Amino acid sequence: MSALNRFHETASDALEKISASLPPDAKLCLVIYTPEKPELDIVLQDKGLDLNEVVSTLRRRGLSIDGDNAYKRDLLDSVVGALALGAQNSNPPPAGHWGQRLWDIGREERELHEDLVAALKLTRENLRACQATIHLAGYFDPAYVNDAQAAMKIADAVLAKAGA
Description:
Layout: H1 3-20, E1 29-32, E2 42-45, H2 51-60, H3 70-87, H4 100-137, H5 142-161
Antiparallel strand pairs: 1-2
Helix pairs in contact: 3-4, 4-5
């Protein structure tokens, strides 16, 4: 019998003895890890163990959302992806998926962006038309022209940034 098999057998026997002294419905999980060597990870768990509850227990005992681990990086990559795909109105998640809310937020933000760009374009064109009319009529205050030119430059810069 290999050393690993002996360890598993010994650990399993120990966990059975510990389980016998736990309150009813309590579950037991043993995790052994070697930093930087995930191939050596060992997880021994009771039948019916809910790993989400294990994570919740660790969180209650100090596991922080601020810590760095692959699970959180993957989760946040999924969040960013759902927001981006929603903004692109592509590849929506399946019905009932937790990412739907984030996809919807991305879609709504993109729609708001498009509405604001359209409103800014309209406002900028109206400002240009008003300025041209006042200038042609000869009734203008040079300060107004300067202010209007500055406002149109700002609008143009924002529209360029928005790709419009």
